[in-house]
Amino acid sequence: MLSGIDPSTERFLYEINRIKARGDRAQRQISSGYRVIQPSDDPGAVPEIIHAQTGLDRVRQVQRNLGQLKAETDAAERALQSAVALLDRVSVLASQGASTTVTADARAALAGEVGAALERLVAAANTSVNNRFVFAGDQDQTLPYSLDLTLTDGVSIYAGGPATREAEDANGGRFAVSRNAETIFQNGSEANVFGTVNELRLALEANDEPAIWTALAKLAPAREHLNRQLAFYGTVQNRVDGELAAASGAVLDFQQTIARWRETDLVEASLELVQSRTGLEAALSARARLPRASLFDYLG
Amino acid sequence: MSLFGALNASANSLEAFSRALAVTQNNVTNANTPGYVRQRPTLLPKLFDPAQGVAGGVTAGSPESGRRDYAERAVRRQNSLAGRFSELLAQLTRLEGAFDPTGTKGLPRAINRLFESFSALAVSPNDLLSRQAVLDRAGDVAREFRAMDGELARAQQEAVEQSTRLVGRIQALSERLRGFNTEIRSNRDVGADPGMDAEVYSTLEELSALADIQALQASDGTLTVLLGGQTPLAIGQEAYALSASFDGAEIRLTDAGGNDVTEVLQGGRLRGVLDAANTHLPAWRQELHRLAAGLADAVNAALANGVDQNGVPGAALFSYALASQAAGTLQVAPILPEQLAAAAAAGPGGNANALDLAALVRDPQLDGLTFPAFYARLAAGVGQEISRGMQNHETASALLVQARELRHQESGVSLDEEAARLIELQRAYQATARLVTVLDSLTETTINMLR
To answer: How far is the alpha carbon of A296 from chain B, nearest alpha carbon, in Å?
Structure first.
């Protein structure tokens, strides 16, 4: 259906609508705080915003992952520190037991203390965080070791898996984050912490002085090995802290990118709003001043 | 020249001026009637030969119509363009809300959250909650794809319904034009009637908003109206059928002879609907299907490279019917959380495969783009089409207003002009009336002299 509006009025309404649309858009931008609400607001900005938002989501997840990882590496480091301390104590006990003046009863008492240390070392190897055994490698739901003094090393066979897991950094890079208990506590004959401690325990129990000296000699390399594992976790901690800092920087960058593309430039939008209002008032005022009379009004 | 002859001539003049005044009155009263154009009264001098006693005078000719065919054609052309862009814009704008441009909701958010869940799985690959979270996020992705495809399908269905409505309206207007032609043919005087003329042209203008038409006037005054300059809608006393049908992929227009005339149509709201339903919506749906199939295939392939918690090769996470319908049929496969392959085959219980899955969001997958970037290209494309549609609509509307202004200048009723003519005719009428009075007086004097 066609309207009977005369073309000049139609033109006026068309121009008014254009001005009003500009004003409405500016008003919407100011009230929402966003310049891009729909794809047509700035199609060119859409890929930039989505790219930045995807990056932001990904890096935030990396932050959460690293936060969780940090708790695990901290726990692992604390467990290894206590293991090193235990090994120090075991070294002291071994030195005492190796003395020629120590009686068989005293050695038996020392053997009991070494046995307790072994139990605590096993507990350290079984450290868990959030229901995950941090030294169980890839089989983190499985208890890595249990104490079994009837066996040669005083512990059951390692029940965990190899530690192949890696963590992801903010740039998509990967780095190893863990070692398994077997690598840490039962790594070959020279760095077999459990085996060395149990060997010492058995030697003390048997009041076998040469065997005590043999076990004592093995404690130093075991301690060195544990310290190397501790250093590994220290390095991981540093890497995690560094990656967390990098992730925070990346989050900031992405947020700035999103803000640059998406958020309203308040100065520009306010100016646009004022201009459109002024334009609207001017148009209405001009229209109101237009002479409406025709010659018919002057006919007597 | 006799007195009676002069009196007769004056009386005829009064009649002519009276008819001219009626034309002016009709112009004024129809100043805002759609389709009406000003009529200019014509006054024709009568034969004047005093030697033969022919008194001359004036007679009223047929009013001259102010209609200018080129101005009408220009209006109809711009009306078709404006109709096309306005309908296209209306069809596309309703869909815009489905395409989130920020990545914070809808499909892009669901995709990001799926890859976040893979990333979280890499931290706790054997944790049942992490595994369940992946299945839940995958369910969200499938649901968002189906919802978006559903919106596009609904938009296409609405476009089909709109095309049927518009074709119905075109048919009704063609039928009305056929009626006018019948009246004109049965009574040629009707064709010259400004009222009928206004109705015909306002119908043509209304029709031009729906479809681009060409109107040709035959010598008998009837109109031939052609769709796109080729397909007859109304010729003489015949109206020709036009129908729209949806073949499952596109809307096709068929003329009375059963010929496909879809591409004949180049303007009007119907063209806008066809543009939306046959070009833009299918293209966007196809891109959405590609994204859905690409995402599902990439995730499934990555899962197949790994092993689940039992060391068995990973089960597929997604399934869909056909690649060409992937978005609408995407489902999460009925698998258990432990069947997700987070570990590489070489390291059961590890997280290598979960990391590979999480990395899919960063790696180019489709047309050299990542999944989020592919979606962004689609959303930006939608935005560009709508933005272009807005600009085209604005330009076409401005040109239409301009064409109507030009037509009004050429053909419209000017109240000032009519007032001036009214005064002019009033003066002429008064002068003639005065002449009649003088002639009457002269006649009376002459008669008295003869007595």
So the answer is: 6
